[in-house]
Amino acid sequence: MYKIIIVEDDITIAKTIAEYLRRWDYNVTYIKDFKKITEQVIQFDPQLILLDVMLPYYNGFYWCSEIRKLSKVPIIFISSASDKMNIVMAMNMGGDDFIAKPFDLDVLTAKINALMRRTYSFQGQVNYIEHNGVILNLSDTTVSYDDKRIELTKNDYKIIQILMENLGKVVTREEIMQRLWENDHFVDDNTLTVNINRLRKKLSEIALKDFIITKKGIGYMVK
Fold first, then answer.
1. Mean pLDDT score of the chain, rounded to an integer?
2. What angle do CA 74, 10, 31 make, to 5 degrees?
3. What CATH number belongs to 128-221?
4. N or C terminus: fewer CB in 10 A for the chain?
5. pLDDT digits (tens, 9 = 90+) for 126-159
6. Could you state, in order of their start, the residue ranges of all structural domains in the chain?
7. What pLDDT does 121 receive?
8. pLDDT at 140
9. How far apart are CA 197 and CA 40, in angstroms?
10. Is the pLDDT of residue 124 over 50?
11. What Cα–Cα distance (Å) separates residue 87 from each residue in 58, 60, 141, 182, 193?
């Protein structure tokens, strides 16, 4: 069952669209917290997004650009601000289609069905790991948190990837060294400590000072 998320601050409209699309066997939800739209999109992992232009806090163009940093998931803009400039802006920011309000639900559904048919196989799946708002982008080796982003080196990326893949579990120093250098027998144990400290310093730049926890004598973990 394909999943659709609706980003629309008029809850009556959002509920109406959701109820109608469910008749077509879509799994549909809508945004409730407009401060953290990206996080909710990640958690739901939709195959299509319906996105209004006029939203609280930040407009739909902003959120489209944020989502496009993580995914090629199809995005249809739905808005009463349907002048030429807004339509062009929507397409330039990464939108796949634009439907002006008020619209006929049958027309909306037909456009959604057509876009779904064109898109899936599905080559544009979200390619990231997310935990408590921290997003590790596996395609460009960056970490994002609270609208801030840092670039990672190869070793930074491998360390945080293995820790986030094992959330809540302690990963031993030996396991991490094996992942980084394939053979840990010829690597100075202090080298891993240097790499961990460097990564922690980078994470602190985006307010993630205590993201990596040390388990003394064992290894590291992310809770």
1. 88
2. 50
3. 1.10.10.10
4. N
5. 467 888 888 888 777 889 888 788 999 999 999 9
6. 3-119, 128-221
7. 55
8. 78
9. 31
10. no
11. 17, 12, 32, 51, 51
Query: Would the CA dihedral through 72, 76, 79, 84 be positive or negative?
Result: positive
- For residues 50 and 20, the answer to whether their CB atoms sit within 8 Å is no
* Distance, CA of 105 to chain centre: 28
Residue 219: phi and psi, rounded to 5, are: 175, -140
The angle formed by the CA atoms of residues 86, 41 and 18, to the nearest 5 degrees, is 75
Buried b (16+ CB within 10 A) or exposed e, 176-190: bbeebeeebeeeeee
Which residue intervals of 77-153 are DSSP H helices? 84-92, 105-119
Strand partners, 198: none
Neighbours of 92 (CB within 10 A): 11
- Comparing C-alpha atoms, which of 14, 20, 218, 216 is closest to residue 113? 20
Q: Considering the domain delimited by 3-119, tell me its CATH architecture.
A: 3-Layer(aba) Sandwich (3.40)
Give the model confidence (pLDDT) of 21-73 as tens digits.
999 889 999 999 999 899 899 889 899 999 999 999 999 999 999 999 888 89
Q: List beta partners, residue 50.
A: 6, 76
The tens digit of pLDDT for each residue in 195-205 reads: 999 999 999 99
The pair of structure tokens assigned to 124 is: 């544009």
Closest CA to 143 of 194, 211, 193: 211
